[in-house]
Amino acid sequence: MPTTTAPRTGHIGLNVTDLDRSLAFYRDVLGLTVIGEGKEEDRRYAYLGEDGRPALTLWQQADHGYAATGAGLHHLALEVDSVEQVKAYETALRDYGVEFAHEGIVAHGEGAASGGIFFHDPDGTRLEIYTPSGVEEAPAPSGEAPTCGFF
Predict the structure, then answer these.
(1) 129 CB contacts (<8 Å, ≥6 apart)?
(2) Coil vs helix vs strand at 96
(3) pLDDT grade, residue 148 (50/70/90)?
């Protein structure tokens, strides 16, 4: 085992059922930039990120939506700098017709400073947009337990 530091997350890859639909969501609603695409009939994918650095890869190779009972991804959490940014995303997502797991911003635990919104992408993948501080007054749907939004 290397003795330096632990590896960091480079990018996340998600299987999707419809690349065009998912691209519209992640690009137009969440604001990620498309930095590369493959449009061959049997290998459709897109790299999305910021400043040319991939953060998310969408692969059109799923034949059904997200299954919460399967092994793998529980949810994908995206961090922003402020409660105001979380609220702006909430408004954009509501305008888009997104399904939310909770009403409004919720704290990660009772009295926690961090928290956010919990919702689903077009394939049902569970997503979170959160801020590390400023939500101490928000309710915590799971009390002392970590919210993680989808228990």
Answers:
(1) 77, 78, 79, 80, 85, 86, 89, 90, 116, 117, 119
(2) helix
(3) low
Measure the CA–CA gap between 86 and 39, rounded to whole angstroms.
33
- The H or E element spanning position 15 is strand 12-16
User: Residue 86's Cα: distance from chain center in Å?
Assistant: 12
**CA 59 to CA 64: how far, in whole Å?**
13
At residue 141, the pLDDT reads 81
Q: Which two tokens stand for residue 98?
A: 């997104």
Phi and psi dihedrals of 137, rounded to 5? -90, -5
Amino acid at 149: G
pLDDT tens-place string over residues 35-76: 999 988 788 999 999 998 999 999 999 999 999 888 898 899
